[in-house]
Structures are given as structure tokens and as C-alpha cells.
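Subgroup meeting minutes
Present: P.N., E.W., G.H.
Scribe: E.W.

1. P.N. recapped why we're keeping a running log of single-chain structure predictions: easier to compare across weeks, and new members can see raw inputs and outputs side by side.
2. G.H. added today's entry (333 aa).
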Amino acid sequence: MTSPAALYLQDAHPINEGMDYVRYAESKGFEAVWQADSRLVRDAIVPMSAFAAVTDTIKIGSGVVDCWTRNPARLAATFSTLDDLAPGRVILGIGAWWDPLAAKVGVSRAKPLRAMREIITSVRALLHNETVTFQGEFVHLDGVELDYVYQERRPKDVPIYLGATGLQMMELAGEIADGVVLNYLVSPDYNKTAIEALARGAEKKGRRWEDIDRPQLVVCSVHEDRKTALDMARLMVTQYLGQQPHIMKASGVPQSLLDKVGEVLTWPATHEQVVAASKLVPDEIVQMLTASGTPEDARAKVREYMADGATCPILYPLGDVKAMIDAFSGWTA
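Output recorded in log:
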């Protein structure tokens, strides 16, 4: 059967180019575009607004904003505003961020599970047009509502998707989220363990894990020359081996390789360091963690992620974006 794909954009392209790519993806039947809060380079909300303004049907998600740096009331107001611009098309994707970046800007990620539970609970209530009083450890709201004066007062149809990698966060997603954004640079086998955790959380609330949407970020490097495609992906894999080893370890990357790469890369890593460290990363690791190669190679890899529990691939393009969109236009899952 055919299965729609989604597009993922971060900060590799000017926003005007991103707008063009999103319009093109919409014309090719893509289901959604997800825009990241990328490190400290690009905020997600501005490009999401731009994408919403130039499209008609494609869904627009944050993939993801962090739960620490936006007050829950302001977070609800922001996504309520986005829904005003693109009614019924906006998705709030939220995650727990990562170190060392969080620590470097003064954010302590202590008790991320408790924080995420409080934030999702309160933001959802605000979006549902409720008056919220919430005195938690991280959320403090006293009779707060989205106090519309000129706009129509209505519940906003903004589903909340939790971006999770760790199994405890995955279990929480099964309890409280409308969907889960499965991470990129993980192996398909990782998905099997993640879905088990999602199911445990869903069972706690009498839900079926199959009813929870499970789009998955997939790094996708497409080129007619397979070696070129693998080399483009290798640089990104190398960067994440050094900067987010918790994701890599969860995917089964040998600790010995993580240690070797970590000896070369500092944070933030220079391009020269990434190139040098990439020489340590074999093809099989690139192939394990990404959908890279010819168009058919990439589609085959994405089918593995779908077979292991993903509902929709969120394709992170390396190289020619429109060529990648073409490769997944009307593809067969």
C-alpha cells in the first residue's frame, strides 16, 4: 500500500528555500513537515509560521521544542496562535532537550519525567479552553486561561506528541501523549524495545499502543551513486556519535567506537574534527542508523522502520531535497 511520508527541516536551508520545499512536498502528497528547534541556530516557531502561511493541507509540527525554555502558558498561547493561522494542521512536538547544551545555558534537566508530565497536562488543558490552576514542582499556574478578547474562544485542535528516546520517557508517552516522535539515528531493532515501553505506558491508562501515532525521524541521504549517499550521511552520523552518545548507545553502536569518536570531537565540534572522526565510522554503522544509498536503498531501509513500529517516516534530507521528496512520492510501504 502507499503510505504518506513527512519532511523534516532543521537549519540547513534558508527559510525561503524551506518554504519552497514544503510547498513541493505538499504537492507530492506528503503528510506533514516537522521543524526543529535546532541547537541555538533556528527557533522552530518562525519557520512553522512561514510554512503554514504558504500551504493549505500539509500538517505542521514542531520536531521538537524543548520543555524547559518556554513557560507552559506561553507555550499554549504560541500553539494556539499557530492554530489560528493553520486550523487543525498544527502539532506540538515536545522533548526534554539534551546536555551539554542545556547545562551550558543554565538549564538543569533534573526530573525530566515529572517536568514533562506536568507541562503536557497543563498545556493540553489550556489548549482545551480550560481555566487551569496547577501547583506542581515545575508548573505553577493560578487560574490561568487563554484569555481571548477579540478572537473566537474555542478549544484548539493541537495534538501533543512527545519526542522520546529513553524507555522511561517512551513509557510516559504511552500514558499521556497523543503521539510519539521516534528519534533518528537509531536502528530499527531499537524500535522494538521502544514500542514495548510505549505499550506499557498505554496499558496503564487503558489505551492501545496501536492507537498512538508513531512518526519517526529518519536521516535520508539519496543519490544515484551509493558511495556519495553514504559519505554525505557519514558526517552527520559522526557528529551524533560524539555529541549524543546516549542515542547511539541505545541503537547498539559499540562503546569502543563511541570512545574513539569522542577522543576526536569537542563540543561544539568543528567541521574539521567531524571530517577527521568520520574516517573511523564504517559503512555498516551508517547503514544501520540511516536510510542512505540509491532511492531504492533508502525506501527499503524506511520499510524496516515501518515494519518495526513507525507509522510515518519523517525524512531528514541530506543532499538534494526535492530528489528525496520525489523518491518518496507515492512510495509503497
